[in-house]
Amino acid sequence: MSIRKVVVIGGGAGGMIAAGHAAELGAEVTLLEKMERPGKKVLLSGNGRCNLSNTRDIGEFTAMFGPNGRFLYHAFHHFFRDDLLKLLAGSGVRTLAEPDGRIFPASGKSIDVVKALQKYMSANRVKILTGTKVTAIEVSGNSALSVKTAAADYLADAVVLATGGASYPQTGSTGDGYRMAAKLGHRIVRLRPALVPLIVKEQQSAAVLHGISLSDVRLTCFGCRAADIDIAATPRADRGRGLGKSRAHVLESRRGGIIFTQDGLSGPAALLMSLAVADALEKGPASLTIDLQPGRTILQLSEDLKTMIRAHGGRQIKSILNELLPERIALTVLMKAGVLADTGASQMTSAQRQAISHALKGLAFNVKDIRPLAEAMVTAGGVHLDEVDPRTMQSKIVRGLNFCGEVLDLDADTGGYNLQAAFSTGYVAGEGAARAC
Ligand SMILES: Cc1cc2nc3c(=O)[nH]c(=O)nc-3n(C[C@H](O)[C@H](O)[C@H](O)COP(=O)(O)OP(=O)(O)OC[C@H]3O[C@@H](n4cnc5c(N)ncnc54)[C@H](O)[C@@H]3O)c2cc1C
């Protein structure tokens, strides 16, 4: 029996596992990576710590991908978190789960994950060619595939297209795989930025608040203008993909951290909201409220303010608010509430106190846009899932072609889901490629 030839295009999370596993199954595997080394995006992931998976169960996991998550059932049942952790442990990488479920290498270093995957590939004798950009895949005679690079063509019995998305192009993911798949007849679902910062219309406020980071707020996205928001509609629990259903004008709501950027908002809660915001903007206006005191109701907050004001009657209101919030935010809240910052606490009227409580529970901004795809953590859209067999990751259109990772129309929230999906689909694609030959 002749040895099966597999070419893996792209040495990212999915490609490295696909290559290692196809070789483990006996195929002769060549991995072509256009950058000078594999795994550049994995290195950046999780702020250099690599949030590689999550403790949630398969049902919750797939929900994080929205309706397309169903496609992942087989891959997850075949190779899931524990299999990944075992594979990494085999290369000496211990992992730790944080209380919120996110899993990282115990060393806190993403490089250890990349090294482990490289070890897995070299243990199975994968031939790795870096600095090698694939320009096209062509169907050759006898159902073989020809993988084209500037220097040479590689004939393969099967190819795994693992080129990732089209964001963070400096990591090598520049969307090449979408073009190659489209040329071979695959439909590509429109590409959009997912997990990307938001741009607000109130540019002056954004510039003033730039750089401030708040670790515990509730950010809510409404499908209306900021002036029309009813803050009483702000949900108490998170709403969004994989969570409770959105209602009326409330499109998504997340409690967590935010960071004010030069032109808007970033940080976990804002990033998670970007797809909902983009969808809303296609239909009409969208706005955001920041509940700066998510642990207290508006009534409790008003009472607490009353107590603070009574206790510090001689101080200015700005210095009292400054005990709750960074100074620049406190001043913005007062401005939105229409209260002069140097108003003496003892002079405060009950209406002013109500206005401040209101602004603290719903600091509102109109959304102008989201940042571009190049700045997104993940690309939404990609190779249409109807044209890929979820049990093998094989193309239903081109014999011998397999897909894995972000090149597919799959994207999830932050939390380790995207990497686990790349690893799981990579493993299945490697197997599909090795077995189909
Ligand atoms: C800043 C940042 C942080 C992130 N943090 C996390 C996190 O903590 N947890 C998580 O789950 N997800 C995270 N993600 C998302 C996650 O990294 C990706 O979803 C995942 O890496 C996708 O894996 P992949 O194998 O499909 O693609 P990639 O890892 O992007 O790999 C694709 C590879 O293909 C190569 N390539 C592309 N075109 C060609 C070509 N023509 N020829 C040859 N090679 C080519 C690229 O150079 C690249 O090495 C993060 C993303 C970013 C940008």
Plain-language structure description:
- The protein is of the alpha+beta class and 437 residues long.
- The protein has helices at residues 13-24, 40-44, 58-63, 73-78, 81-90, 110-123, 176-183, 203-209, 268-272, 274-283, 298-311, 317-321, 327-337, 350-361, 417-436; strands spanning 5-9, 28-32, 53-54, 95-97, 102-105, 127-129, 134-139, 145-149, 153-156, 158-161, 188-194, 198-200, 213-222, 250-260, 264-266, 287-291, 363-370, 378-383, 401-403.
- Strands 12-15-14-13-16-17 form a 6-stranded antiparallel β-barrel. It has a 5-stranded parallel beta sheet with strand order 6-2-1-10-19, covered by helices on one side. The protein has a 3-stranded antiparallel beta sheet with strand order 3-5-4.
- The longest helix has 20 residues, at 417-436.
- The protein is elongated and about 90 Å long.
- The relative contact order is 0.19.
- The model has no long low-confidence stretch (mean pLDDT 94).
- The structure holds flavin-adenine dinucleotide (FAD).
- Flavin-adenine dinucleotide (FAD) binds at residues 9-15, 32-35, 38, 40-42, 44-46, 50-51, 133-134, 162-164, 167-168, 171-173, 176, 377-378, 405-406, 416-419, 422.
